[in-house]
Design brief:
single chain, 447 residues, mainly alpha, Na+/H+ antiporter like fold, two-stranded antiparallel sheet, 19 helices
Length: 447
């Protein structure tokens, strides 16, 4: 019993607070569809709030904030504080996910990454072309071609998890890799096509901060006390430069070390030596202090035996999925439907371009580019995945939400166009989820 207690953390203990509140939340977070469910609740709450209490909704998210940190001064309303500030943390996590996949995941092997990367390329070109064909390239409406290019990983994975073993692991892995490659493309699009006038001085400060971060990583500085102020300067300088501030999060995520300081063999050898010394210590005060010092040394070694990328992602990944992104949805998904015809919004050039761009563009683009890659032997489908699965996965990739809403805010200032684009996103979200689920449901499970 004593040995078992050593492996029980406070969060999983039998104390009242962990038992009543923390443990249920941890069990909920372990469900694959949970983050998507939280997003659905947040989006629904935004719609209800924006229509039942529109003045309250507008007042909360247009409340101005003045933040001062020494020489840095920032004045933003609450919505932009979420979109420019908190979403930088979300994109930081995205950057770390991309780094992990490039170093040790599916994107690390060019042969395995080629097929979903090629499919993701088609899943970006197809939606953009369909949007341009419907909404054109002239005027502010023409700036929305990047909206239907993004896939929301949380929702897509949530839907596919509902199908259980009907969907082979290879198809799930294909969808995840495709979505990661899609994220890379969306980040490039935001950086190049949705950047305002550049302030080269501030951009130079941001680049200098990134170089300092890179150099500190090379000399193996590990303290967050050093990196946090540098990260804030990089974010603020990027915001002031005209490049969207969230790209600072992506860059910092890509610079996060993916290798531990100590190999597992080194930690194992050192821990055995330290534990052996502690077991030989007497129980007097001086020896106890020495043992405490050795335990602290062992604790530091244990921490540095885990890559900084894994440690940081473990700490803030949950906050990003279950707090920041739902708050972003609450601040951006609210559409006041009074005076707006949903039918007219969906059939407007922007609404129809977004909806068909997501559903038809993703379906045709991903499927066609993947089949071409298969014919030219650039890759092969994962084990257990068929063309039927490919069609279903392509439809699920049409579920665009977080990044799509994010690009809406960058593309449009006209609130009518914003509302039409959001209606198109919601329409595609619902239809793509139903169609993708239905197609994959029809595939008989393998024995």
């Amino acid at each position: 019993m004593a040995d078992e207690q050593l492996h029980v953390t406070w969060a999983r203990s039998d104390r009242f607070v962990p038992r009543a509140f923390v443990s249920p939340l941890l069990r909920f977070a372990q469900i694959e569809a949970s983050s998507g469910l939280v997003l659905v609740v947040a989006a629904a709450a935004a719609l209800v709030w924006a229509n039942l209490f529109p003045d309250s909704y507008a007042q909360v998210f247009t409340t101005p904030f003045l933040l001062e940190f020494g020489p840095f001064q920032l004045e933003e309303d609450f919505q932009h504080l979420i979109n420019d500030g908190l979403m930088a943390i979300f994109f930081f996590v995205v950057g770390m996910e991309i780094k992990r996949e490039l170093v040790a995941g599916e994107l690390a092997d060019p042969r395995k990454a080629a097929l979903p990367a090629f499919g993701a390329l088609g899943g970006m070109i197809g939606p953009a072309l369909i949007y341009i064909l419907i909404a054109g390239t002239v005027g502010e409406a023409g700036r929305g071609w990047g909206i239907p290019m993004a896939t929301d990983i949380a929702f897509a994975v949530g839907v596919i998890s509902l199908l259980g073993r009907r969907v082979p692991d290879g198809a799930k892995l294909f969808l995840l890799t495709l979505a990661i490659a899609d994220d890379i493309g969306a980040i490039v699009v935001i950086a190049i096509f949705y950047t305002a006038d550049l302030n080269m001085l501030w951009l130079g400060v941001a680049v200098a901060g990134l170089l300092i971060t890179w150099g500190a990583n090379r000399v193996r500085i590990r303290s967050l006390t050093f990196y946090l102020p540098v990260a804030f300067v990089v974010w603020f300088a990027t915001l002031e430069s005209g490049v969207h501030a969230t790209l600072a999060g992506v860059a910092l995520g890509l610079l996060t070390p993916a290798r531990p300081f100590y190999a597992l063999t080194e930690f194992h050898r050192a821990s055995r030596q330290l534990i052996g010394r502690i077991e030989r210590e007497d129980d007097d005060v001086i020896e106890r202090q020495r043992a405490d010092h050795q335990l602290l040394t062992l604790s530091d070694m244990a921490r540095e035996s885990v890559a900084p990328l894994a440690r940081i992602e473990h700490r803030i990944g949950v906050w990003s999925s279950y707090a920041i992104v739902p708050l972003f949805a609450l601040a951006n998904a609210g559409i006041n439907l009074s005076g707006i015809s949903i039918g007219e919004a969906v059939t407007s050039p922007v609404g129809l371009g977004v909806a068909l761009g997501l559903i038809l563009g993703k379906l045709v683009g991903i499927t066609l580019f993947t089949l071409v890659a298969l014919r030219t032997r650039l890759g092969r489908l994962p084990t257990g995945m068929t063309n039927h699965h490919l069609v279903g996965v392509s439809l699920l990739a049409a579920i665009g939400f977080t990044v799509a809403l994010f690009i809406v805010g960058l593309a449009f200032s006209d609130q009518v166009l914003v509302a039409e684009a959001k209606v198109g996103i919601f329409a595609a979200w619902i239809l793509a989820g139903i169609l993708g689920y239905g197609v994959l449901r029809l595939v008989p499970p393998k024995r």
